[in-house]
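Colleagues,

Please find the record for the two-part complex below.
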Amino acid sequence: MRTFFLLLIICISTAANAQVTGALNLMPLPKSMTTQNGHFTMNPGFTVAVHADQTDTMCFLAVNRMFQTLNRRTGLFFTQENISSKDKNDSAGLVITVKNKSGMKIGMDESYRIQVSTRQIRLEANTTIGALRGMQTIIQLLSNDESGFYLPIVNIEDAPRYAWRGLMIDVSRHFIPMDVLKRNLDAMTALKMNVLHLHLSDDQGFRVESKIFPKLQSEGSNGEYYKQEEITDLVSYAAIRGVIVVPEFDMPGHSTSWFAGYPELATKPGPYKPGSPYKLDRSESLNPMKLMQIIQTTPFPTFDPTKESVYKFLDTLIGEMTTLFPAPYFHIGADENNGVAWKQDSGIVQFMRKNNFATTHELQAYFVDRVQKMVTKYGKKTIGWDELFSKNLSKEVLVQVWTPMSPPGLVKQIVSQGNPVILSKGFYLDHFMPAYVHYNYELPAEEILGGEAAQWTEIADAENIETRIWPRAAAIAEKFWSSNTVADPMDLYRRMFIISKQLHEGGLQHISNYDRMVLRFSSGYNYQDTKRLMDVLTPVKGYKRLFALISMPTSFSYQSAPLIRAADIAWVDPSEKWKFRKNVTEFLQTKSPASEMAVRDQLMVWSKNYDQLKPLFESTPVAKEIVQHSKNLSALSIVCLQAMDFLKTGKKPGEQWLKDQQKLLESAKGNYGDVELSVLPEMNALISQNFAPLPMSYPLF
Amino acid sequence: MRTFFLLLIICISTAANAQVTGALNLMPLPKSMTTQNGHFTMNPGFTVAVHADQTDTMCFLAVNRMFQTLNRRTGLFFTQENISSKDKNDSAGLVITVKNKSGMKIGMDESYRIQVSTRQIRLEANTTIGALRGMQTIIQLLSNDESGFYLPIVNIEDAPRYAWRGLMIDVSRHFIPMDVLKRNLDAMTALKMNVLHLHLSDDQGFRVESKIFPKLQSEGSNGEYYKQEEITDLVSYAAIRGVIVVPEFDMPGHSTSWFAGYPELATKPGPYKPGSPYKLDRSESLNPMKLMQIIQTTPFPTFDPTKESVYKFLDTLIGEMTTLFPAPYFHIGADENNGVAWKQDSGIVQFMRKNNFATTHELQAYFVDRVQKMVTKYGKKTIGWDELFSKNLSKEVLVQVWTPMSPPGLVKQIVSQGNPVILSKGFYLDHFMPAYVHYNYELPAEEILGGEAAQWTEIADAENIETRIWPRAAAIAEKFWSSNTVADPMDLYRRMFIISKQLHEGGLQHISNYDRMVLRFSSGYNYQDTKRLMDVLTPVKGYKRLFALISMPTSFSYQSAPLIRAADIAWVDPSEKWKFRKNVTEFLQTKSPASEMAVRDQLMVWSKNYDQLKPLFESTPVAKEIVQHSKNLSALSIVCLQAMDFLKTGKKPGEQWLKDQQKLLESAKGNYGDVELSVLPEMNALISQNFAPLPMSYPLF
């Protein structure tokens, strides 16, 4: 994989042109596709006919949504007003045929076929869901040039590689409002994802209304939670778009918020209030080792697995929640329970002895087994994070693999024991990795059920979460839909940033909220240059910032601090960086005047950045944090312009000059304000006239 | 007023500098204010103390919202985490004192006093609502410069001029989702507005759930309506922000949607379905006279005022709805009932004879009287549009004056009869008038209750409605809050566009959705230049476009057509126009190099617009509509650059040259694609070296 990738990086411009598939802007790429010259031309007389069960409301709603999207994008004002089961004219511009009416079920047939000729578009699917997936492809096939709007002549056979293609959103650490969830659902739909997994409870908040145990939300949250009607509305919004909503209630750890209202469920009497369980000695600075030790040795608030009343409570709640969430899956968390609270309780220790549990992990297995049986009783399958895996785990249970340090054989072990695997290891969006890192993550050889991108929200909130998830989640969506032969990262970025604009156009707030946050950050000073700087910054990767946050004084903690620093705003994988990389690559390869001008123009603008933003840095504390990046960007831009002059004149730079610049580059790698300058590899390439290979992964700590 | 205004236009630059009030960016401007040199400096140790009833949740929620806004804007990460009734330290940075806990009631004391010294900010109010208004002023007082963030030393005494300061949103013609309403409420709060009036029913849709008569929403809408819990949530969202929500159910006309489910309420048996009642002969083109005739002679679907069953139905529904909406007002519409449906019904004619009703207006007065008595029974005051006014109207009824052709004495007549007046005449946002036209509209000499900006949605939807309402509604908000001596339009624009950015930063989507729509409009071509063109276009004023829409074929009708044309996107009152005007004014007055450069740079960019956008115009139908504006903008920019050369060299342009340019200017005034070029007066000023007076009003037809 690594060699292949490097080759592609080097051949980027040729690769992009050679790939007909890429030129079509489809994402995820279909299983198979053949194209020919020619167009199906769109015009106001464009009509749609549907052969489907006339009670297939989901199908007709989707057809009309697609039709209106095409209408809006083309501005053609189609004369057909809407499409109903009466529209069956076989000479319509688009004829859709659906064999079987069906809602979304994991493992079902989601395949479809599209044939575009100059005369007609045909979409066929065995199921309604397949047809929905195909409609997204039709939207993405819409193209335009001087001749107007059209679909290219193409033959597509498509089906997903994996059955489970999810997005997990943590709505506990920061509450994420319904409209944000719906916008994420719209974006997921465009990328053919089919599972929205909501992490509904954690130490910091219980986010769904229980009518039976109302203190769960009233005491267990800051008043921000979903009412049951809102959940019902969300579930149906998702369902008609072919997405199931899987609820997660994390237990027996990560559960402080439950105990705020019901302390009797916990090992200790409390009182409890929702919030981070980390009670640190702020006086000493925290390093990863020290934090690991704290994680392993702190008696975090935990359910008492020995009380029958606990199981009675859970049985009732699971009964209520499985009714609220119709999906046939129920996630019980079961992660990061270090067992310390249990070991400290003499009653629990006695219980373990009595039952011959040698470790707290065995006790957790007992707890999981009992909870899993309740979930089964309510007709659902249990899911848990990989710590719930044990020798005697019921084969019915789905295991979501995530732990970064888990042994390489874990997936194999789970699969060979007969449990389905959902893979999230390698797909944590909150690790702040570039999309290509997720994209190139090697999937296990074993047959897994699928995967989930995961967005935890210790340092993400309603305003910036869309900028954290999108467009990178599109790369992960493709990973789990498309064939494993699709692995060209430069074509990935080309398509990903096109899709990103389409999502923006469709109402996703990632770009709008980024602009909004940059405007606030610029505090009335130079917005354009503030944006130009922010456009090439990127948050420090891995857990660095989260660890730093945990060790900060209260008001800086992720519970109450406003997320307004550069590290909260900057793109994880900035499009401007990849645009610059494309231009630099082209310039170094071809020395074409166009690429030279593009690179020089960009460097000229950056070279003035520090001068332009001085007043901002001098007066605004959040800006002051990143002043060094602006200085470095400007200084290195001037150096790069010199390097280009050297290249042009054929004059060789002196050894001392090169040494000085390498030193400058090295020092520019620093972390200031928890952000890094993302264009250093490209600047280094200009200076040294050679691209260093991109790292395939980055350390988490 | 006119002369005063013209003077100010001419003195713009000096006026702006001289006005200390203006320099403070407050909107609406307070009643009285004295400033001194000096600052209260904000720093991380900034704290807030509150002296208020400890059960005054509304107050504490507002204080914490304000505190977090200050925290986000300054990026200072205040050490105080949140403010509760325990925070009473009199040496806090901000001390808030509230005498009486109170919710919003029309006519209440909304006054407040703010004193800022170098040591402390003090906010005092007699009521919670007054304190809320003052907190918005504190947010607006926040300033920053090279010394950091601060509040200027100032003494403010403030109270509203009018008790009723509302915004009406029509959610029937196009459904407006809850999140859009909440964003509008946030913006209203910033401008100290206190009434959100929802036009919940009209021919095109009944938009609120009735549990007693569910066919109202199920048959009377396209499935888009508010559930009762959503209304309750909205009402409480508004209430804690000091805004009441007034529902309007329009009757006896404008009521087709009711009859879809309950045809027995109407004069004719139906069947009915929600939609525009205009059934026009599309073959002949429509002119205003013809339309007037249609409006006056068509038997539009209308309630039957003679049936007791109708009153029984209404009594039950009003009982249900007055419970759902706790505000003590209930709007019954009563506008635009031409009486034709009544005259065509022999039973009704007989009823009129029997009761000695000489006109259908008298019959409507009877209907209104009966409905008003029910409203009274449920403890509410009735509101109606001015057509409901009649000699014997109960003095309890509030009259909302709107009709453009109403006699000048109407307000006087209503007031002298003892009915309170809400003024919307002059404040229809959907007339596409610039803010200064609303701002300079002369208020009646009589004592009125207040006014309402009104946004009808025949040609506005969830995506563009925020661009239609904001920031112009801010000018109207100031009109009804501030003293009538505040009438400087250039300072209005200066402050209005600052507030506009703050609303954007706070989450309003007017700027984001504009960008989104322009991106879609640019169809993958040159976004920047598409935006530059769109930035100086403005929809045709008055009812021109609505009339054109009504006469168009079905699929172009406002019920189903996508709102994606330039006329749906372009700002009604573009900031770029006023920026250009400021620069041109300064240049003509001072010939300063800075102003000359600003004007020239802008003209240079515009001069290339047509060349830049040719590929877009050639391929995209919605863009093709406005190609002539781009040609004119580019051609006139070149002419303006020549004019500036003449000015600089002292060379006089030839008479023929001037004539040619006047001809070009004249032809550029054309309506293409239902938009106009907004910068023609400024271009004319450059060419003729003289500003023509701005029109104080524009024709509606």
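The two ends of chain A are 24 Å apart (CA to CA).

Comments are welcome before we finalize the supplementary table.
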